[in-house]
Write a structure and sequence with these properties.
This protein is of the alpha/beta class. The chain is built from 14 helices and eleven strands.
Length: about 350
């Protein structure tokens, strides 16, 4: 058993050291000497992870080797790595950090895969964006908003600013990403059910459905359609709306006054990481809470809302008073399947 575990960790270390740094975009030709490295699991797209890795290495001379995986695969890896030797001591893993959706981090905390880490920097993060005992900390979030065509706004007395108003709004052409195509719209449905109850939530979407021009496959499509005047209003992630606005599209963002869902990305330190790796990972986790990380992302067209209110990026954010759904849903896989199935049968394909 020990031999198989040792081989597993050796192979994992080889992959982390020689393969993933290329995927993360690390500059192998740099003349600056790298002083250390971090290996991390992430659910981020490779491009986004590479931006963060490149910037952190440039600033700190610490290389970040990201291993991009789906959430369920990360959870399986973490379960495999929580092992001990014949003396009952933890078997060290070369992976020291997870950068992923908060729901994965919450499950990892509950199963003992990660350990608490709190710092002066993370102390500034509001409690609704972090685990109460410090097992994970959110670094940015991406809420669902109404992206409205600016020219269309001039033709109507007012635009809807609640979900119920959007459902009852006559004549507007609406764009939406299909619920089965991405996590963010699915999270919106589950969050609305937790907030309003299933009857009201499905009633809202039945009203919106009557004006939907297209259920898109990608998060960016409804925003692009709105900017081009193909639809009047889109239900979209704020990051895409802000990206298209920065690219000159005539858009305005409306934050629903009755609240909205959001996808929260955060970090956690892996329990079986070696002490020296853990310390390096903690510094990277704190860096991700700062302006440097946000600036690097924004320079490359990625716009998220930082959880740290002390950052310039947060202070420049125009929707600081937006209302977020505070109900945490814990639906089982079967319940989530049933919610989507009900939406498809009685709304989407009616």
């Amino acid at each position: 058993m020990r031999r198989r575990l040792s081989v597993f960790f050796f192979v994992l270390l080889l992959v982390a050291t020689f393969g993933v740094s290329i995927m993360a975009g690390a500059d192998q030709s740099t003349d600056r000497k790298v002083l250390g490295q971090i290996t991390a699991y992430t659910t981020l797209p490779t491009e986004t992870a590479a931006i963060l890795a490149d910037e952190y290495e440039r600033e700190s001379r610490i290389r970040v080797n990201f291993i991009p995986l789906a959430a369920e695969n990360i959870e399986n890896r973490l379960q495999t790595e929580i092992v001990t030797d014949e003396k009952g001591l933890p078997q060290k893993t070369p992976v020291s950090l997870v950068l992923a959706d908060s729901r994965l981090l919450e499950r990892a905390a509950g199963k003992g895969y990660v350990v608490p880490y709190e710092s002066e920097t993370s102390d500034s993060v509001p409690k609704n964006f972090k685990q109460e005992n410090g097992f994970w900390t959110g670094i940015w979030y991406d809420p669902m908003v109404f992206a409205v065509n600016a020219d269309y706004m001039k033709t109507v007395p007012r635009t809807p600013n609640t979900w119920q108003e959007l459902a009852e709004f006559d004549g507007a052409r609406i764009g939406v990403t299909d619920f089965v195509a991405a996590d963010a719209p699915q999270n919106l449905l589950y969050s609305m059910i937790a907030r309003f109850g299933d009857k009201q939530a499905y009633g809202v979407w039945r009203g919106i459905h009557g004006n939907v021009v297209q259920y898109a496959k990608y998060l960016s499509t409804p925003v692009r359609q709105t900017g081009m005047g193909e639809v009047d209003i889109s239900v979209a992630v704020a990051s895409e709306a802000m990206r298209y606005m920065e690219n000159g599209y005539p858009l305005k963002i409306v934050y629903p006054a009755d609240g909205t869902s959001y996808m929260l990305t955060g970090t956690a330190i892996i329990a079986n990481a070696a002490p020296e790796d853990r310390a390096t990972a903690q510094k990277f986790a704190d860096w991700l809470l700062g302006d440097e990380a946000q600036l690097a992302l924004q320079k490359n067209g990625f716009y998220f809302i930082p959880t740290n209110p002390d950052t310039v990026a947060y202070k420049n954010f125009g929707g600081r008073n937006l209302v977020l759904f505070d109900e945490k849903w814990y639906y089982t896989a079967q319940e989530r399947h049933d919610f989507l199935d009900r939406w498809m049968k009685y709304i989407r394909f009616q």
